[in-house]
Amino acid sequence: MPELPEVEALAHHLREHAVGRRVHRVDIASPQVLKTFTPPWTDLQGREVTGAGRFGKHLDLDCDGLHLVVHLARAGWLRWSGTTAAAPPRPGRGPLALRVHLGPPGEGPGFDLTEAGTKKGLAAWVVRDPAEVPGIARLGPDALSVTRARLEDLFAGRSERLKTALTDQALLAGIGNAYSDEVMHVARLSPYATAGRLPAEALDRLHEAITTVLTDAVARSVGQSAATLKGEKRSGLRVHGRTGLPCPVCGDAVREVSFADRAFQYCATCQTGGRPLADRRLSRLLK
């Protein structure tokens, strides 16, 4: 799933390559991707792209005051092309959901929004104010800008596990499954730690890890083409997606806890005092 660093890099790419161009045509290949009907998506046509930004994990393309806001969900992606296909796509065929032509179709550049797999979550909104998007309206403070004091306030009294708190977008915006694993590993904290019971020293480490991990990931990602961003993300991860491989800090094997539709990875030596975590469904540490 694209998270804060990748979405920031995509926004940067659009600022570099899309701003100043005009939307010539928008093709809808998957009607269910559009979550708004007023204003109609056809109102984007003819407008100049004046900006591109990010709200948490939402990508925002500003077309002269009308915004195309996108959430890429788990398997969505933005594919930039120097020349878009002139023929309109067939609805419901393949991974293509939406295409934006930023030049004459068949001649100019543009981008596709695509989604792999059968479970669809990619969503797009056409709004006059990004705050009209429900997911943006609910966002907590951006993870890259949160201060140590603000983090302590956010976690005060929270009873959920740290893994859950870090990925709750209404609490802290931008961190997903992968970077939460990375942050907790760098901070040497258990995913099962109670968010509201972290001592001051642990909160210090957590805040520093959030800032360091995300800043480094943004620095690696910005300037990459959209086509290489996924590979860049994978290459920079220390524990996430590396089950069975040695921890880069201590050499212990990276372990995994699996859920019905996702998993997280951690190092027992670095994060849990050497104790392997039980499957979350057991709701306890192995003794």
From TrEMBL:
Q: Which Pfam families match?
A: Fapy_DNA_glyco, H2TH, zf-FPG_IleRS
Q: What keywords were assigned to this record? A: DNA damage, DNA repair, DNA-binding, Glycosidase, Hydrolase, Lyase, Metal-binding, Multifunctional enzyme, Zinc, Zinc-finger
Q: Which GO terms describe its biological process?
A: base-excision repair
UniProt entry tagged with the keyword Hydrolase: yes
Identify the PROSITE patterns for this entry. Answer: FPG_CAT (PS51068), ZF_FPG_1 (PS01242), ZF_FPG_2 (PS51066)
Give the reactions, separated by semicolons, that this protein catalyses.
Hydrolysis of DNA containing ring-opened 7-methylguanine residues, releasing 2,6-diamino-4-hydroxy-5-(N-methyl)formamidopyrimidine; 2'-deoxyribonucleotide-(2'-deoxyribose 5'-phosphate)-2'-deoxyribonucleotide-DNA = a 3'-end 2'-deoxyribonucleotide-(2,3-dehydro-2,3-deoxyribose 5'-phosphate)-DNA + a 5'-end 5'-phospho-2'-deoxyribonucleoside-DNA + H(+)
Question: In the UniProt record, does the keyword Oxidoreductase occur?
Answer: no
The protein's required cofactors: Zn(2+)
Top-rank taxon of the source lineage equals Bacteria
Q: Which residues form the Formamidopyrimidine-DNA glycosylase catalytic domain?
A: 2-94
The record's SMART domains line, in alphabetical order, gives: Fapy_DNA_glyco, H2TH
UniProt domain FPG-type: residue ranges = 238-272
Which family, according to the similarity comment?
A: Belongs to the FPG family.
Protein name from the UniProt record: Fpg/Nei family DNA glycosylase
